[in-house]
Every structure is written in structure tokens, then in C-alpha cells.
């Protein structure tokens, strides 16, 4: 029987109960009704439970999802989704670009401006390559528990992690206990890599290049929605993106697409779409964050949106070529409400990584601190990315390996860390050949006409968008 992941009502209900508890609602009474009726918990790691619910339970799940949406929360004042309210809560919101730039309307009167920058094409190519390499490194161990990642790497003398995962030399009993990601192992283990395979962590940056080509910097959230319906196969969406896609097809319009029966609205999906907004707004983190906000609110709210804004602003600062990883992360935090869960998690992760020599210790504490969150939630994953970049001091290999070795959403974390560290490296030649050569300057995708495109051409297309008014 077909079990569609990330969309069955009986599975969504369990995730929404977790979301409600995390964002300050009180779901206890609804949870008791669900369990009394025979409802199950949310799937721990997969996107769907193994067996379908009865027609009665499915109807009940839909009703309870709507009841949960109506519950009052206690965190709304500290964690708004409206851009106006987000900016009002950010006392250090970045300065706008100077006259002639593209974010002047975002700046409060009287604030100083800063000059607009243009990143080098070589830097953008390094960023694209870094994103692909980090993603590919994390693909075979996606969904594995932290202990499994460590044991598999140790079995091949690859711990601390410093190169690609391989199945060569791994004991059969260990692979039985911790099997590689079924879909990714054939294309992402060292012995199998032959170009960059398709992944949503690369598909979304491609879509955002199309978005800017067609609509420019003033695109709307509705433009994002139309582009997805035109160019993004539904089967290439996951979690919040799949729910929003479904909502669009049923006639629900943005931004309600992010809220209607969508328990994944604070997960990592919007974060992985943020890179292009940062790459094309070098030196203008405010504009980068605002673009990321318009993109993210199709699918996400609150901390899910902040994670995208934080990433875009961090990358916009990195794209200037004038700041180190630590300054970039500080810039990223200026667009996140300081009292939010995400801001607190990032500050904790940076402080921990900056004062702890052993990164395994950092990871263990982060996992303990954020144990209540799903492994794809934006809060623990953004914290891990910040910790990896901090602990590695922005070094490319150190950043991607720490991000992946920390578990959680391994390919997405590796991709974002790789994008930032690649941009900081400044040129493709600054990235170790053992990482970039297996990609063969070739990316597979189902997006538009991009299949087989080279990273050099992607850098050219991105660089062209940096010059758009």
C-alpha cells in the first residue's frame, strides 16, 4: 500500500502535538483524546507510519489538527512571523546599502548606510561547490543516530571525520545495525561518487536562481508559489514544503499555506532555500534577510523563518570577503529576535563551540539541550551549523566535517556549512581537490533545464543576478 511521507493526517497529528508543546500551547487534552481513540505517536525518523489509520482515525486527526491550530500560545509576542514585528524586536537590525543599492526601503530613518558589494564569480563558484560537497558528505548517513555515524566512521579510520564515508572495510554486522541511507548510498559513498546527484538542498537554490531571473529582487511569496507549481515536482518536496504544495493545490493561498495543518513549519526547509538570497546581496544582510523572509513564509513561521533569515544574512556578510566566520555569524544574529528560541540556541552553540576543545563534547551537549526537538527541526540544526563554523574557525574541511559529524539533518547541515565556508575560502582552487574532483563539475536535477549543469556556469548565473538593480 502506498504510504505518502510527510502528509498522512494521522502522522501529522503527532508532530503537531510536539509543535504545540514547543511553541507555548497546551495540547494535553487533545493528546489524551487522540491516544484514547487509538492514535499513535509521530514517526520518530521516517515520514510516515508503517500502516494506515482507520477512516475514523484519519477524520479525527484532521479535526484535532484544526483544534490545535486554534489553541492560544504563550510565545507569539517573542516569536512573531510578520517582518515588521521581527524588525521591531531586533535592536541591531543591519544598516541598509548606500543609495543605489536595493534595500533602502528596509531601513529606519536616521540609520547609517553601508556600501553595496559585488562578490567575485570565483567566490560564488566556491560557495556552490561547497554546498554540493557538504551535502554529498552528509547524504549516506542522513537519518542515522549520532552513535551510528561515529561507529561507521571509526570503522574506516575516518574519525574525527575528515573525508568521504565508505563501505569498504566496514563490518557487516555494523552495517546491519546502522544501514546507510538507502536512496543515497549508491551515489554518495566514496566508491560510488560520479558527479553531484540530485538533492533538495541543491534543487531549491536552483529554483531561487529562476525566481530572481523571472521576478527580480522584488519577487513576492506568491511568485515563489507559482514558480514551484510550474517547475518543482511534488515528489521532490518534503516536510513543510510538501504540506504547502498540497495546500496550494487545494486553493489555500500564502501565507496560510505555512500554517494550515502544517506541523513542520519550524523545521529546516526554509533554511536550505536561503543561500541565493545571501549570495546576491553581498554586504546587505538586511536585504538578504528580507528576501529570505518572503521566500520562507510560503512554508514556515517563526523560528523556521528566522533560520532562513539568519542564514541569508550570514552569507551576505561572508560574500563581502571582508569578514571571518565569527563576524558573519554575529551579523546573522542581528536579524533574529533575541528572545526567540533560535537566537538563544545559536548564542549557546557559539559560546559552547568557542570554549570547548573537543567537538564531540560540543555535539553531545547540543543533542542533550535540544533533545525535545525532531532531528529536522530548525532550532537544533541551525545551532549545530553555527557551532561547526565557530569550532572550525570557518575552515572548509573542518566546517563541513563537524556539521555532518554532529548528526541531525546531516546533508542539509553539511550543505549550509559548506556554502558559507566555501564562500569564505574565496575560490574553487582554495577547496581541497579530494572534495571537488569527484563532483566532476556536474549537477543532476529535475529542475527546469539545469540537469547536468556545471558549478562554474551556476556561479556565472548567480553573479549575473548580483548586478540586477
TrEMBL record:
Cofactor names: Mg(2+)
Keyword Metal-binding: yes
GO MF term (any one): metal ion binding
Residues annotated for Mg(2+) binding in this entry: 409, 411-412
Cofactor note: Binds 2 magnesium ions per subunit.
Keywords for this protein: Magnesium, Metal-binding
Pfam families for this protein: ADP_ribosyl_GH (PF03747)
Superkingdom as given in the UniProt entry: Bacteria
This protein's record includes keyword Magnesium: yes
Residue ranges of the region described as Disordered: 97-120
Listed InterPro entries: ADP-ribosylglycohydrolase, Ribosyl_crysJ1, Ribosyl_crysJ1_sf
SUPFAM superfamilies linked to this entry: ADP-ribosylglycohydrolase
Name under which the protein is recorded: Crystallin
Organism from which the protein derives: Streptomyces albiflavescens
